[in-house]
Amino acid sequence: MQALDYNTQLDQAIARLHDEGRYRTFIDIERTRGHFPQAQWTKPDGSVAPVTVWCGNDYLGMGQHPVVLAAMHDAIDATGAGSGGTRNISGTTVYHRALEAELADLHHKEAALLFTSAYIANDATLSTLPKLFPGLIIYSDALNHASMIEGVRRNGGAKRIFRHNDVDHLRALIAADDPAAPKLIAFESIYSMDGDFGRLAEICDLAQEFGALTYLDEVHAVGMYGPRGGGIAERDGLLGRIDIINGTLAKAYGVMGGYIAASAKMCDAIRSYAPGFIFTTSLPPAVAAGAAASVAHLKTDQALRDAHQTQAAILKLRLKGLGLPIIDHGSHIVPLIVGDPVHTQKLSDMLLQDHGIYVQPINFPTVPRGTERLRFTPSPVHGPEEMDRIVSALDTLWSHCALNRAELTA
Question: What percentage of the chain reaches a pLDDT higher than 70?
């Protein structure tokens, strides 16, 4: 029997990505402490050049905030580096408990449960729920994040996919199922690739009508929306109608980790049954301390949230003025549609090499084919000079690549 040539198959798999223009490369950058969004880019030849980061998820610059850094320094000086174990075996510290208390308070819930990332929190929770509610049917928005899709796929229970933000379709699916079956609706508050908002109130109404649980991913909203940064559910006065909230500590809060916030019984059940929680080493205490400091700070820093929204509005307005095809749903996310993976990569490369601007191309399967884009995330720490540079560079490169512009109306 002839041995399989595994290396050839790997070569073919990688070659397919190159042929389609969507092979992903890592850009080696080192953020400059105290000067974000400035960073140092180490080029493939080993030389170093300054760049401005325009695609980071540290939306508010909290990864550089003195309050966060001080909390992390204090914790590492007090406890050392790692947690030393899983949460069940020596890995629960006062720092983890304090962070969970901050998060429960943020979302007005009885409890919160930490995970190493929001991806793991979604996957572990959604894949565990059918163990707690036998016969559970999960209704999932078609554009939910990959972590939610994976959790729903792996749970072994029944699932229904409703068209994105289509509440009528969701209603039809629920109405067709057994009224006595336990149900859960999984959706997001802000969908990160287009920056559009979920229809929270209408979904909550539907859940109440049919006796379904609600599961809301607030990853791209926590810290940035609501009077204390509790997300879109807080902004819209819906916290009491959401049963389980998923959030991240790695975006607006600038550190690392994910969580769910829910009733004490729900969190207790998930921590007791979810392998993704039980068998994972807990976050380092210093990370938990920094995240807790960030959450606490943003509960009172409305000025930073306002500045963030202002910067996003300015960038969108200026790009629209140039006729560049952005998507604007009113959130802080600014997608610029290129529509071709090769051109998207070329634009990204030229921005980096010729203008010192780093923005990563977004291609299939993250977005549908034909909607490839550059996705900008303006922040309060992007100043007027950075704004002028990126607008000028995009104007020049859009013409250089002979890409279409939108018709401007008076």
Answer: 99
Residue 334 reports pLDDT greater than 70: yes
Check pLDDT > 80 for residue 288. Answer: yes
Q: What is the 3-state secondary structure (H, E, C) of the chain?
A: CCCCCHHHHHHHHHHHHHHCCCCCCCCCEEECCCCCCEEEEECCCCCEEEEEECCCCCCCCHHHCHHHHHHHHHHHHHHCCCCCCECCCCCCCHHHHHHHHHHHHHCCCCEEEEECCHHHHHHHHHHHHHHHCCCCEEEEECCCCHHHHHHHHHCCCEEEEECCCCHHHHHHHHHCCCCCCCEEEEEECEECCCCEECCHHHHHHHHHHHCCEEEEECCCCCCCCCCCCCCHHHHCCCHHHCCEEEEECCCCCCCCCEEEEECHHHHHHHHHHCHHHHCCECCCHHHHHHHHHHHHHHCCCHHHHHHHHHHHHHHHHHHHHCCCCECCCCCCCEEEECCCHHHHHHHHHHHHHHHCEECCEECCCCCCCCCCEEEECCCCCCCHHHHHHHHHHHHHHHHHCCCCCCCCCC
Region 353-372: mean pLDDT is 92
List residues with catalytic annotation. Answer: 251
Cα–Cα distance, 360 to 346 (Å, whole number): 11
Q: Which of 248, 262, 331, 238 is closest to 295 using CA atoms?
A: 248
User: β-pairing, 111-115 with 196-197?
Assistant: unpaired
pLDDT in tens, 300-310: 999 999 999 99
Residue 408 clears pLDDT 50, i.e. is over it: no
- Is residue 94 pLDDT above 60, yes or no? yes
Number of Cβ atoms within 10 Å of the Cβ of 19? 9
Residues 105/245, Cβ–Cβ less than 8 Å: no
Alpha carbons 375 and 331: distance in angstroms, whole number: 13
CA-to-CA distance for 370 and 361, rounded, in angstroms? 13
- For the segment 179-204, the average pLDDT, to the nearest whole number, is 96
